[in-house]
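Data availability (excerpt). The following record was deposited with the supplementary files.
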Amino acid sequence: MHKYLLLLPLAAFGLYGCGGEKGGDSAEDTATTTDDPPTTTTTPYDGPTLIDVAGFSCPDGDTWAINVDTIGWTTNGVANMWETGNLYGWDEEHTVPSVSFDPNMWWDKLERTLADESEVSAFTPDSNTVFTCGVHDADPVMTYMVRVYDQSDALADCWIFSTDPDGITTVQGGGQPTNNTVSDDGDIAGCSVM
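Predicted structure:
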């Protein structure tokens, strides 16, 4: 059974993995960490890539953390954050790179950290966020979407969840803030509501 975690402390997402390399050209495609949890099989995983856990949080009070754990390998992920609960809300999209993985393709761990409280004029995707820790992570105003892509770069899984009671309906109905571009916004309709 899948579950999602919202506003989960980063400490619960300790680094996993084994030494090894994933395919791809960028340095973000390669991770070497300790063997925790240990690899339980040497048989390569050949099933679908699925999101197992996804969370957005402010673990230290001034940094946002986006964490995604998958079953199967990814070619990284994309996270969207919408301030759907406020009249003139903001929205952002960030990539979420793999930081740790099982060498037999059984799981992948993706993370992105963002400095909070950026001015709108200084907003930089994958670096900072306009959303404020202690405000946006605490008030029921946010809607989140996470997408992961399989080894062929095809959309493998998508989750949408919200602290705003009307947020999912707002986003799926096209009423979300549109300050920034959402890549492949057609993916929204096919997301699993968590």
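Summary of structural features: DSSP finds one helix and nine strands in the chain.
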